[in-house]
Design goal:
six-stranded mixed beta sheet, 8 helices, 15 strands, single chain, four-stranded antiparallel beta sheet, alpha+beta
Length: 271
């Protein structure tokens, strides 16, 4: 199977409404992705592994979001932002259709998590956090990304570069306002806050250059990383650093941080 055949197959699975046969094909593609027989050129090998450690739901949703949607083809009179918004809406709708059939969809996420886990213990710019004992459950929105594929990339990259706090996707849903949400689970890590200087030193050892201290932005030619402040990075009693949350992206030239990457959804099958 080549790249074109794969995406034609994915389009057929979507258009046929995720039949039992379609779900079996999706599971097969996800297993090939996880085993490395399906190579997703959007990612480096370590990043594809990061996507895999996000779980089967994460892998399938990432592939579904990568398939072309109507807005990708463009049309006259639509600006880039509106086209991006339309792409995001269509990606979310496609994931929702699959998640409902696959049994990983949650109606009214906020109410469900509150009823199941109690009141949220924290809330950030695009996430609500709930206590689940040794883990945390988070409901993540698309506020910073618009398109689900970029929010899913963030999870893949986090898992690749910060595997000590791996994020697992456990489902999808919408809140009562109709906003699309990704529901994830992450280990609970107890530690102490660290200084900006300690974070900068830690990132330098990882090969990242400090680009903007005002919003804690670091970058390599491959990866853009921001929001690395003392609420998102903690240190254990043994001195180990744990990145709990950050804004991590594939560093493209559009981010204007010296990026060299190009976003692609091309796949290749290993012999």
């Amino acid at each position: 199977m080549n790249n074109l055949d794969f995406w034609v197959s994915m389009e057929s699975i979507v258009n046929e409404g995720f039949t039992p046969d379609g779900l079996m094909k999706l599971d097969c593609y996800a297993e090939q992705f996880i085993s490395g027989r399906l190579i997703y050129k959007r990612f480096s090998p370590i990043e594809q592994h990061g996507c895999s450690t996000g779980g089967l739901c994460h892998v399938i949703a990432s592939l579904l979001a990568g398939a072309k949607v109507e807005a990708d083809y463009g049309s006259e009179g639509i600006n880039d932002f509106k086209r991006e918004f339309q792409c995001g809406a269509q990606q979310a709708q496609r994931i929702e259709q699959w998640a409902k059939v696959a049994g990983v969809w949650i109606d009214d996420v906020d109410r469900f998590l509150k009823d199941s886990l109690g009141e949220k213990i924290a809330e950030g710019g695009e996430a609500k956090v709930y206590d689940h004992g040794t883990t945390l459950i988070k409901s993540i929105g698309l506020d910073y990304f618009i398109q689900p594929i970029l929010a899913l990339d963030r999870i893949s990259l986090h898992n690749a570069y910060f595997p000590e706090t791996v994020i697992t996707v456990i489902g999808f849903g919408r809140n009562k306002e109709g906003d699309f949400k990704i529901v994830v689970e992450q280990p609970f890590i107890k530690g102490e806050r660290v200084s900006d200087e300690e974070i900068a030193c830690y990132m330098k050892k990882m090969g990242f250059e400090l680009r903007n201290p005002r919003n804690w932005t670091f970058a390599t030619p491959e990866i853009y990383l921001s929001d690395m402040h003392d609420e998102n990075v903690i240190k254990s009693a043994a001195g180990t650093f744990f990145v709990i949350d950050c804004d991590i992206r594939i560093n493209t030239k559009e981010l204007k941080q010296g990026g060299i990457r190009i976003l692609t959804t091309e796949v290749e099958f290993a012999d």
